[in-house]
Design brief:
about 160 residues; alpha+beta; Alpha-Beta Plaits; four-stranded antiparallel β-sheet; globular
Length: about 160
């Protein structure tokens, strides 16, 4: 059974949300740059590694959200670690990463991002079809995080270059 975070999604069309999504995508793209601490001798290897990692991404899922009252960051991260354990046990490796705007940021909404990437649409489908234990866990996640799912901005984006 394929479970998708879009199940309870409301489609946001206002320009503020679309601008926020665009800013997040640009931020995430900027995060793939190499460190300025890399020496010139190591730079070609780092560039090659970065190029290989980006070429393996055909699509990404991006969820922008806020944690509701009563859910701590630690609790949410523990649930994502459990979710990632299904992917790791199935040979896909860690799938989901959680990002957060800095504490100094003036952003009052959508302070968290849950991001995953896939080398193909087939890999996306296969990685989310993991059997009854995974499905049962995801049902619990949908119930527990219904407030996030109903108010998040979700985008499935595809590589165009």
């Amino acid at each position: 059974m394929h479970i998708n975070f879009q199940r309870h999604m409301k489609l946001p069309f206002d320009s503020m949300k679309n601008s926020l999504v665009l800013a997040c995508i640009i931020f995430l793209a900027g995060c793939t740059g190499t460190s300025s601490d890399v020496t010139t001798e190591e730079a070609p290897q780092a560039d090659t590694q970065q190029s290989q990692e980006t070429e393996d991404i055909a699509q990404m899922s991006i969820h922008l959200f806020d944690l509701p009252e009563g859910i701590t960051e630690e609790e949410y991260l523990a649930d994502i670690d459990t979710l990632n354990s299904f992917f790791i046990a199935s040979g896909y490796g860690k799938n989901y990463s959680v990002l957060k705007v800095s504490d100094a940021s003036e952003a009052s909404q959508y302070r968290y991002a849950l991001v995953s990437s896939y080398p193909s649409a087939e890999a996306y489908a296969a990685s989310h079809d993991q059997g009854p234990e995974y499905d049962a866990f995801m049902d619990k996640i949908y119930d527990k995080y219904a407030e996030i799912i109903e108010s998040e901005i979700y985008r499935k984006v595809f590589a165009i270059n």
